[in-house]
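Quick note —
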Amino acid sequence: MHEQTPSTLVSRLAQESFSKSKEYFTEGFPVALKGHQMELAHKAVFAYRKAVALSHLYQKSLDQIVKRNGTDYAYDAVTQEIDEAEVDCDNAGIVPEAAGIGTAGYPRCPWGAGTYVRKQGIKYNTNQTATLKREEAALFLGPPGENNGLSFLNDTTGVALWVGAARYIGASDEILGVFPESADPGPYYAFNYLVNATYSMGYCLDIADAKAKVAGFTYLLFEIWLSESTKLAPAASAEWMNVSTPSDVVCDVGGYDSELRVPMPGVNHLYTYSCNWPLHIHLDYYEPVVGSEAIANSPAYSPNQTMTELLISAELLDKELNELSIYLDQNRINWYSTYQVCNMTLNNMDIGCSDMAEDKLAATETMPWALASRSGVGRGDFLNTSNGIYDRYQGLACAISAWTFNNWAENNRWMDEYLAAWFQNGYHEVHEFTADNLEDLGYAQFAGGYVTKRIFQFPGVVNIQRYGWWKAFAPENYHYGTWSTKTTQEDSLVWQVGHGMEFQYNAIKKGFLAMNMSVADGKLLLDLLGSTSTDAFTFRRHIIAAHTTWKCDENEGDDANVYSSSTERDTPCDPGSEYFVVWNGNANFSWDARDKKYDPLDLSYDTGTYEEISALCELMNEAFESDTPTCNALQEMFDDCDLYVDDDEDDVEWVTNCDMYDTLPAGNPSGIYCGYGVVEKRGNIVGHMLHAYAFDLILKDGGLMCANDDSRTCDFMKGGLYTTQKARDVLFEGYVDPITVKFLNYDLAEKNLTIVCKNQTVRSRNEVCGEVYEPDCTEGGFHVLYTRNDTVWYNDEAVKLGPNGEVFTTVGMTTTSTYVNSTTYERRNETITEIILDVDRSGENLWQWYSPELELPYGLGAIKNPVFAIYQGQLWQNDSFHQQRECEHRILNGPKNKFASCEITEETGRREILNVGNVVKWYGNDTLEAAHGAEKWEVKGSRGEKYQPYLWDGFYKYETPYLFGFNRVAGSGEYDVTKGTRRKGNQTITSFHGDQLMKFNLKPFRSANEDVTHVDFTIEWPRMWYNTTPEFEIKVNRYVDQKDDWEQARNRSGNNHVDFLNMPYSTPKGFVSAEILAGFPVFYGSVRHWANQHEFAELCDSANGRCFGDAQEYLKLRTSTSGELEWKEYQQWVYGEQGFVDPPWQYRSFVDVDPVTGLAARSVRRMQMNVRVERSSLFPYLLSDNDRCNTPSAYFVDEVGYGCMIFHPVSWVEDNQYMDYETSARVYYGYFQLRHTIYITFYTALTLGMTMIVFGGCAWWHYNKKERKFKARIYLD
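Predicted structure written out below.
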């Protein structure tokens, strides 16, 4: 996100989902639409074939009358009134009383056309009563042949002419054409051809008389015979099932344009059309599964008439009695399930998953058994696998389903033409829909929901139940979309987030009804949203950036103010500044907007021309208001939807989700919140869609963010900000974030490369049992694939081209590359994908796994490694690897060459003991910079190992008096001769941490008692674990980090960072930026943000009791609005350290220093790693409580930066270095025991000296006494 900006990422993610959406609209939508509308087309064709059957029936009736009464009588009877023509045709299947010609006991035919001719004479205003002549009747019913093509008994040209005439005059509702009169002039030409032929016989006074005669006879044929005869539907049904029926039988007559049309002989502008009507075209569809014997013995070869009529007759539509009819929606849904299962079985696809259970039941049980049972087959015979009956009916069921959907919904040109003409009729815009551009129906649906509005009165596919053939349109998450309601929002509005498939539907969901577009504009928009071309990418990025950016110099007047606190928008924005906003109703979407970050004239225009895209952007720039009239209109849509009544013939209720249009949504989370005077532009709607398509359909539904399977309740624990990977992997071993792979693959696609997981772990199955793979490559590693699609031939071997024209063989790409002239290759349509690199945790691949970049073979260069860990590879026991990584010294796999060398230079203290242990060069750098453009600072300070030694002056206690009079006890005026004068060490020591760009000026730990200026600490060895008694202990001085250290580090980076909008921001209190080393906005801070402390009074707004204020960056981590903070006042710490003023030492960095040797007995660095996450176009709803930061926002966190952001904790680590036993023993016994040695030596010497003195004195006294005695003795001679 930091490298490419949220607008770029949204543009890339949304492109992937919009490209699929475009596919669904342009390919799946026409198929689903044909599946839905084929009922009308089938009824129209069946009615035409009934007319053909009527021609045959009329021939039989005429033959019967002629046989009984003669030819002249038969024709004379036609001229009579309908109730006067005394002819019998008991095979006509017409109930006499239904035809108005008699009673059931007197089976007469409705043979006379005189009644209808007379009525039509009145209609056409003839000069006298129109009367049909016998010669004219003979013309209408004459023997079919070349010389009488207009005879109704001619079942090709004659039937077509009279059907066309019937349509022209509206003689029958059943025989109505599928094409509107405006698109089909054929009926006009058919009627006039018959009229002119009749008039030319010379028996008509004028043309009107001829029209009356043709029209009258037409009404007799179609109003009476076609509607009343019970013989026609069975005959047409049998013809459909008959394996001898020609595949090119006529389905329609007309004058519309079609590549299928056949000119009518002698009739200008009139044609007949075929449509693959007979079933036998698909009879062998399932032969590869059931075998040729089952097909050869198919019931279609000797069909049961009841079964046949139930299937195809348009007159047996009782939903309670007919489980086979292709006209009843519930049955057709079952037929679609059958087709789906049969097709998948033919393609060796799995149909065993739970989501396919109902489809499988329909295909393998319900429909085959319905066919068999209606054919008189018993249940036992049907289930007996040895007799082959089941396979025959299974094959027939698959054949019928394929005829219905493979034929009519997918591969039927006439159906394509019918569908285009059906929609063209009544469409408001000047746009031509044809069978060759059926994808325009999808564009029309996207632009304005025009197609579903035509069928169901509502503009979204979300209102259509996803049954049967509608599954061919789009997956469920696209079809129904996702919507969720937010209960709070800037300006206290309630709003919804989510997506529907159509632009117009998304506009309606935002409370705007009039944003619909033309088909051409919708096509260009969808193409731009789904294309990978440069102009399309730039368009998407432009839209999402304008949609979510508040530009100060664009928004003038009162709206130029931005939020500076939680309560009001009261601060004028800075001219030229940009702020994130959830949506900007004042955005400038113009292609040539002055704030553009691109030059439109420099782009390569592949999706649309400069002029077309400019015009579209002006359309995007048109503003609309969600006002009361709009809301009332939307509420009417809800009422109409709620009361919608579907076809009474069926049980299927197609309309659903009516609550989506409810504008009074009390308790309805799916309703529309409108009427607040909100102003948005079409570009804002596209912006909303771009975010929803990227976030919902790719990140969530794609399994990239959600560890749980249901994206609607996404836990966001899969990738991105959160993960459930093992702590060891996150810290040391490395893991592969699925979102990282997704974004990396976008870049790799330009190099014909992609990354895929080696372990294709099935995460779930989709609704057609397809395997949905786990996108996490951590466990098994991943392949790097070379995906260049153009396979070529070289020396009769299939090869692929490398990036520079190299030849790669298909055998794993392991041979030596050879440069050849690519123009000599013969290209073939074959794709070969090659694995060129394996990366996993196995021994030979570990180096790649742990490296920041992956080195590819064949001169393909290096690519970023999607594997990440904070301390990547640090546990691997490989000296060469560690030496290389240590020399590279890349923090968090950040950019290269941030340090000059591999060396760390420290002072030995030889020249100045005070500087012992100080670092003077950190990996070759004697200065560091905290941010690009910031002032460099000097490398200085100890690494936490050595400090100035004070030797004898540093002892905490002497066992013999030392330096009499030098150590005055504070406050007493007396001298303490038992302690060193420097035992408390320095007031400040420096600890340097170059990898974190941090330098601590540590100070002694304080006590809560102001009179106590120093706290004594003791370090013992062995560590006092498990209640052991230490062998020895050393008194140390504890130095801890200070707030000032963090503030100084913060100030070093200054205001030199920029956010996603390139606006400056500074580091918050208690943080130090490491972005310059890591390459992304990572910040080290005090654990639990204790250095970000503010007085509690600053936090709360007394007016509303909510804890806001100026400069509380850590409030972004607050878990509620009740004042619970990550940092607490010191009285609230519960870690047993209430005796100290500062936060507990458990959260602070410190060093325990022995003042005698200057060695650190323990050095503890505690830092919390945080990442800066902005509320952006990718994450516009970053927090659940979004009114913590209203947008557009200036100085949300005490002038740290514009916009809304959180500094999100990643981890806090304690780097604890404890002096080992060997070193501590050497210090203790080598230095601290010196005091004891001196003590023993002193007192031993003193004792011995005193003893010698006493002994010598005694001896002296003794001998002196003797001497005195001797001298006092008087000797007498």
